[in-house]
Amino acid sequence: MDFPAVLRARRLIAIVRGSDPDASFRTVMTLAESGVPLIEVSLSGADALGVLRRARAELGADAWLGAGTVLTAEDARAAADAGANLIVTPGLGAGVDEAVRRGLPVLGGVLTPTDVIAAQATGVTALKVFPASAMGGPAYLKALRGPFPRTPFVPVGGVDAAAAEAYLALGAVAVGVGSPLIGDAADGGDLDALRARAAEFVKVTS
Length: 206
Known about the structure:
Number of helices: 10
Low-confidence stretches: none
Distance between the termini: 17 Å
């Protein structure tokens, strides 16, 4: 399936940002083995490009493996060269433009109605509402969907299992989940605990 179809069907993007590249790689692999099909490796993590390369080699060409915190055109180019086939940004800018130019699916960061209108003009695939929790959580998504009822929103930021369920009930196409899912796994923490959290989020978003 193409990215929009997978996003709507699976409704969960895991966000990996770690201080330990080996632990981050193990986290990506554990998530994939736990049935999380959309995984983003944030470029703000340690050796993120190396993690992307290793994960792509293990997961194969068809897996959805994203690069997050893409800010610049060079970020987008480096992420694509490392094997990312999805680009995720915290806001609009050169990183979005370069990824769209390359024909890559883009989850572009927005916060305000003005951002939404600007993002739709760039050709992004879906809109990452970030930081969602700081703006009021599910209540903010509900307000935002008033003027934009058909826009594919993906809330990110402080999304625990209860919030994920609420966002999806309000019409989000998916949720992006970082620390409430990853915990300390990408810093060398317990992978069994990660598997348990992954099972909970997969159940909520299925």
